[in-house]
Amino acid sequence: MKSTDPPHPDNKLVNLTPELRKFIENVGMYFENSGIPRIGGRILGLLMITHEPLAAENIASILKVSRGSISTNMRMLIGSGLVEKISPLGNRTSLFIYPDSALERRTELGLQSSLNFKRLSEQGLAALPPEDKVRLRFEDALEWSDVLIEAFENALEDWKENHHSRIKSTKLTDIPHRAPNNISRKN
To answer: What is the pTM (predicted TM-score) of this model?
Structure first.
């Protein structure tokens, strides 16, 4: 963009510092290293630092990616519990946020995944004859599943106890709903 060009409409919505742009890119790289598309991580990084819900069009413009790429990755992020789709009353545009419940929801999904894997392992073990050496794999899988299930249950219990008591002990006006001044609204 030339300095004589009019400002982009999304520049009125957000002002990303170089540090925040780097954070967004690093979240994208983190997820890409975990087998998830980089753009999904970049979307998540952006939503984690915004103060306001964003429309898909705004996200696409800010991240300089196609609207189709946003839609594809948004389905995955919503399914993972890390992003929530909201539709304010009277507004036909869907908006997206990083919900306050994202961490709890991800842990619940991890617990459910571990329970599902345990059931599959039980099924595999039951299908094998008693003398088959491969049964050891399934016995290990069952033991590992139990370890994960217990860890997820303990993590959820600890989180709910500590996080919710912290919120109760803090005045409503003292609770930062989003990180302060990361992205500023421009008038």
So the answer is: 0.72
